[in-house]
Amino acid sequence: MHQTHELADLNLLTTFRHLLATGSVTATADRMRLSQPAVSRALGRLRTALQDPLFVRDRGGLVPTPRALALQPELEALLTRLDDLLATGAGFDPSTSRRTFVVATSDYSASVLMRPLLQRLGREAPGVTVRVVQTAPEAEAALQQGMWDFLWAPQRSMSQAVVWTKLFDETFSFVLREGHPLAGKPLTLERYLSIQQIALSPEGRPGNPLDETLQRMGHQRQLVAHVPTFAVVPSLIAHSDLGAVLPRRIIEVHGKPWRLVSRALPFPVHGFTLKQAWHERHRHDDGHAWFRQLVVDLCR
């Protein structure tokens, strides 16, 4: 009974959440506007209630134990659902809100959208936090259960309770470094096939629609590496004579800093449409509606 009573303390659970996020008693105290001794006492109560150290000290701060890490997803889901419950019908003021929105997405969407989103939040909602997590096969369940607020991805098959809103259409181009022997010449099919390339394989498996298109044309590109994320590609291209096919918005973000040259592909390649998915359970949540409209406005 004592353990159940302790964990019913919302402030205690919130302290646990901040300790997991910061790995620091000092940073948690600053976030919660509490004294460091108050946070330390809360940690002691958590350790007693859960019968686990929860955190051990290291040179970099507090390191969570396996028990603490195992509790983190359930804790986030519980507190997120509570945030939703308190926010629904109570009005929403972005200028004073301290709400956290959880967005599941790939590194592509995060690279393209997070910078303008954080700039906008800094002006209009400085207390709002965005927590980006990787997508997972159980996406619909994560949206339904409140573990995620949003999913940014091309549309996939889900129930009618999941609402999809278009953000933008994306196309692909070919990139080389400035100074590449072929960078100043028109990109013909023959020249494209002569360049060794890096392929994007988000799921770690060779093959994608681009390769299927080439195969139907009776051609095959020279691939020297498969990488799972877009983020690593610009630096690899910038320091080699390799090339890569990248989404246009990734090139806009990384092309100039890495001194990349973009060229239209010499054959047709289908792009994709990025959408924002959310669950009907948030239909009457003013804060959720504000955030999802903010993202749509940014993409326009």
Short description:
It is built from twelve helices and twelve strands. It is an alpha/beta fold.
Distance between the termini: 53 Å
- Category by helix and strand content: alpha/beta
Biggest sheet record: 5 strands, mixed
CATH fold description of the largest domain: D-Maltodextrin-Binding Protein, domain 2
Strand order of the largest sheet: 4-3-5-12-6
Shape: elongated
> Which architecture of the largest domain per CATH?
3-Layer(aba) Sandwich
Number of helices: 12
Unreliable segments of 5+ consecutive residues: none
Give, in order, the helices and strands: HHHHEEHEHEHEEEHEHEHEHEEH
Oligomer: single chain
In total, how many domains does the architecture comprise? 3
CATH homologous superfamily (4th level) name of the largest domain? Periplasmic binding protein-like II
General description of the model:
By secondary structure, this protein is of the alpha/beta class. It has three domains: 83 residues, Arc Repressor Mutant, subunit A; 100 residues, Periplasmic binding protein-like II (D-Maltodextrin-Binding Protein, domain 2, 3-Layer(aba) Sandwich); 98 residues, D-Maltodextrin-Binding Protein, domain 2 (3-Layer(aba) Sandwich), CATH 3.40.190.10. The protein has twelve helices and twelve strands. The protein has a five-stranded mixed β-sheet with strand order 4-3-5-12-6. Strands 9-8-10-7-11 form a five-stranded mixed β-sheet. A two-stranded antiparallel ribbon has the order 1-2. Strand 8, helix 9 and strand 9 form a beta-alpha-beta unit. Helix 2 crosses helix 4, helix 2 packs across helix 5 and helix 3 crosses helix 4. The mean pLDDT is 89.
